[in-house]
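Much of the work behind modern protein science is quiet bookkeeping, done one molecule at a time. The fold becomes a row of whole numbers, each drawn from a learned catalogue of backbone shapes. The protein below has been through that process, and both of its lines are reproduced in full.
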Amino acid sequence: MNIFEAGMLLCFGASWPAAVLKTYRTKNVEGKSLIFLLLILIGYICGMINKVLNFGYDFVFLLYVLNFLLVFCDFVLYFRYKKKTDASAAGN
């Protein structure tokens, strides 16, 4: 069990609910980076693979999954609201 890895995931993961909620409420993705979101998703996938191959399933693996799902929600919202953001920018 790696308490420091869990701490890192908790700290990183603390910001994702706020980011997802902001995107959902404002329906605006201006300032969000698709590449950044993809890199974060890939990083969490790598972390999950490492945990399974080297340490098995534990509570830290669940933190990876939770963080991945939160970032994936933001990723999906990016595509859902990107058209709306582009349309409102073109109208100005």
